[in-house]
Amino acid sequence: MKVALFLMIIGILLLLLGGIPAVFEFMGIQGFPLDPTSSLFPSHWFLMIYGFFGALIGNEVLVALSVEWTGRTADNKLIILFIIFTLIGSISFIYNQQLGLVLILVAMSILLYYSKEYLGRSRIGLNPTLYNWLLFLSLMVTVTIIDVQISLGYVIPYLNLIFPVSMVFAVMARDISLVTGVKPTKGWEISLALVLLILGMTFRLDFLMILAWILSFHTSGIYKFKGRKYPIIHLFTAWLYLLIGSIFVFNYDIFIHSIAVGFLFNTVFGVDVVLMDLFINTFQKRVLIKPSYAPYFLLNLGLLMRFIYDLGLSLPFFLLSAPLQGIGILLFFILTLRQVIK
């Protein structure tokens, strides 16, 4: 499991490498005079999506889900290969975008290749679930998106958000009931929501994204407020941000950060049962984590301040917007990992 732990560490390091330049950039827009990481900012979205979220999702596909479905993790050589291409691809993108895309294409292809394991029967004879098929679809779409950008010779940053967002929808098909206590109503509903969301995000069509939101929100059962309070609050907030991003597609900054920060990170914070499964298989021990609302408060306060600034209101203390988001995210992982490894 040391390889899986190394993959997690790489993901957190890439989170820092991609997140810190974003903090300084937004502070610079507000008039802060110092920006020591300006050269890294053009690559920050790539480092976050394919570096951090790539590592997180890679751990799910190659480790946590693999143990659950096949009884073992992926071969260590395959995990190491994924780590190498994810790390080198993320760093290469800073200097050569095309090279970075090609290397990340290989990393995503490794996940797609291994996901075929989930299209057969499980070790105890279960047939593939909806989650297995949506996972495979998500990775196929991701590989296609990267391939299209390589063919075009330039990147379309927002399009790449489909990778982590579609994976959230796939995981929701399996694990949302563990959080809410409500079993998803109909498989077709989340499947259609995923297809509509992919199309809506690709062409930035608000009506398709809003329809996807309605379907996913309904089938999730989040609105029933059953289950434990901590994950429900986070997931309700996450889906609220997804709605905001769907409505404000015309405002690029709100559109991007509603999804990339509001939706994705509130989901990561909230799906503690999924994280526990990942930690159990990474550290090979049963873990119990006492959640804290401090990261939630800092992240969402900072993001709300950012959106108010985007809409035209500028106040001096809004300079804290980006640092608050960054501190909130970092604090979540510090508090979580401190309890896991003690």
Folded structure, characterized:
The protein has 342 residues and is mostly helical. The protein has one domain: Cytochrome c oxidase-like, subunit I domain (Cytochrome C Oxidase, Chain A), CATH 1.20.210. 75% of the residues lie in helices and 0% in strands. It is built from 13 helices and no strands. Helix 5 runs antiparallel to helix 6 and helix 10 packs antiparallel against helix 12. The radius of gyration is 19 Å and the shape is globular.
List keywords for this structure.
342 residues, mainly alpha, Cytochrome C Oxidase, Chain A, 13 helices, 75% helix, 0% strand, globular
CATH topology: Cytochrome C Oxidase, Chain A
Helix content: over 70%
Main beta-sheet strand count, sense and barrel state = none
How many E strands?
A: 0
Helix/strand-derived class?
mainly alpha
Give the number of helices.
13
User: What is the rounded Rg?
Assistant: 19 Å
Oligomer: single chain
- The H/E string reads HHHHHHHHHHHHH
Q: Give the CATH H-level superfamily.
A: Cytochrome c oxidase-like, subunit I domain
Instruction: Report the principal-axis shape.
Output: globular
Number of domains: 1
Mean pLDDT: 91
CATH top level label: Mainly Alpha
The assigned CATH architecture is Up-down Bundle
Q: What is the beta-strand fraction?
A: under 5%
Low-confidence stretches: none
First CA to last CA: what distance?
17 Å
